[in-house]
Amino acid sequence: MSEDGREENRKQGGFKTMPLILGNEICDRFASTGFNANLITYLTQIMHMPMVEASNVLTNFSGTSSLTPIIGALIADSFAGRFWSITVGLIIYLIGMISLTISAVAPSLHPPPCAEQQQCQKATSGHLFILYTSLLLTAIGSGGIRPCVVPFGADQLELKGAHMTAEKGPSFFNLYFFSMGFTSLLALTLVVYIQDNVGWGWGFGIPTIVMALSIILFVVGYPFYIRIKPAGSPMTRLTQVMVAAIRKRNAVRPDDVNLFYQDKELDADLSITGRLVHTDQLKFFDRAAIVTDGDMLLSGRPKLWRLSTVHRVEELKAIMRMLPIWIMGIILIMALSHNGTFAIQQGRIMDRRITSHFQFPAASISIFTVISMLTSLTIYDRVLVPLARRYTKRPTGITYFQRMGIGLVLAMLSNVSAALVETKRKNAMNLHGVSISVFWLVPQFSIHGFAETFFSVGQMEFVYHQAPESMRSSATALFWLGISLGYYMGTALVTIVHNCTKKGVDWLPDDLNKGKLDSYYWLVTAIQIVNIGYYLVCSKYYKMKTLEAAEGEKVAEMEKERGEEKVELGDTK
């Protein structure tokens, strides 16, 4: 980056941009949460879908919404940049919301209400085409928003100094998740109430209006943002390293790491805050940095399909080291993918009376996840971290590996609670004809909120700090891609369980009182126990990345203890 570019970055960014970025995200999250929270009710009550079919539609939709970010991230990192990727994504998302709102308002665009003592009319192919097109547009829009917002916000803070400090990084992520949680709480109460009691036109229309406001708020901040120049396609660079290593698979690897190819000028746009330093893991790919005859052009530049710098080799290694931890997140999402479907259907057949004239909306039960997440985020930031610092001497209190591990255990306990409550609910209904209170679902949703505080925030910290600098949007997209695959696997698991059990006692029938949903919960609990064991092995052998600062100062993320954050060598004594 040129001196003029660095001077411009000093005048832009910083905390003054946070109200604009977080304000946009608050509006966006309010809109998307209000839009999605009660879709299971819309599909079953308005579109007249069977429960398993509606559940699979939503998990597939959630999976697609989390798959498109990998494409959006590649576009952002390759040529569009994060600002324009977010802006275009917001607009496409808004178009999808407008489409679904119109279909909810126009009687001809959805099935008619069910008449008494008559079979409900199913949605026609035309109704489903509009529904799926609307959902697909919102999923495509998510692809531009999700992988870019967190790195874009972190960029505004990081480039004000040499790098994001260990204290500032986690605080930003905690603030981000806290803001999103508070907004989700508002959407889960206000919007869901409107959908259940006023109508789906206003229930979808209000989030749509708020989404339009979020676009305006974000675009207004254009002059104040740091907008990092895209460094070219990360997939191309990773592929070049792999091809060069395979071509030189028989080359003799030197013992002296200083003999590997380095080019500071070539890597300048990829390593503004510091180049990656050579590591001893995945040594096969070091062959891409061995200089051999025919590797250089007449201009003195390397042929990138034959020769890569150490930094580019280490980019590939960094991504590959993250993959085992990423796989663990897929299994977790698969185990939790039912929270927005089956649990809400449970709530609809439980006692939801608050007063003689008011019933608690079943979809609003998710507010207890948000409340517990907000509470635990505050306690974590203000109580747990300062207390842990006294014992660990780390600025962050505990490492993000420890934070993710705690989250995995809590998520497993959430499913244990879900299984026990479903057993109690079914016994009370089938044996005594009594509907227990919907608030028996509160423990599983609350524990889930605690798990989010530890796992989701910890995983986002892990992805941001361990990803190569020029690939942060793409690496953040891995976070969403993991969620996508987790939802698709959740769909597969539900389908397999339903098909394998429907000839006997169907675990997942439309009438939950005749099913064995508690057995399904115990199955995913067992899967989570295996996943925790897998995670412990992966985290034990993970090696942190090491940086060399851009100004010549050495900054290393060293492994004094597993998972320790950055340590500035010049400050150690």
From TrEMBL:
Which Gene Ontology MF annotations are present? transmembrane transporter activity
Subcellular localization(s) per the UniProt record: Membrane
- What keywords were assigned to this record? Membrane, Transmembrane, Transmembrane helix
SUPFAM superfamilies with a match to the protein in the record:
MFS general substrate transporter
Q: Which membrane topology describes this protein?
A: Multi-pass membrane protein
The yes or no answer to whether the keyword Membrane is present is: yes
Keyword Transmembrane helix included in the entry's annotation: yes
**Where, by residue number, does the polypeptide cross the bilayer?**
83-109, 129-154, 175-194, 200-225, 318-338, 358-380, 400-421, 433-457, 478-499, 519-537
The UniProt entry, under InterPro entries, shows: MFS_trans_sf, POT_fam
Q: Which Pfam families match?
A: PTR2
UniProt GO cellular component terms: membrane
Principal localization reads membrane
Q: Give the family, as the similarity comment puts it.
A: Belongs to the major facilitator superfamily. Proton-dependent oligopeptide transporter (POT/PTR) (TC 2.A.17) family.
Give the protein name, as stated in the record: Uncharacterized protein
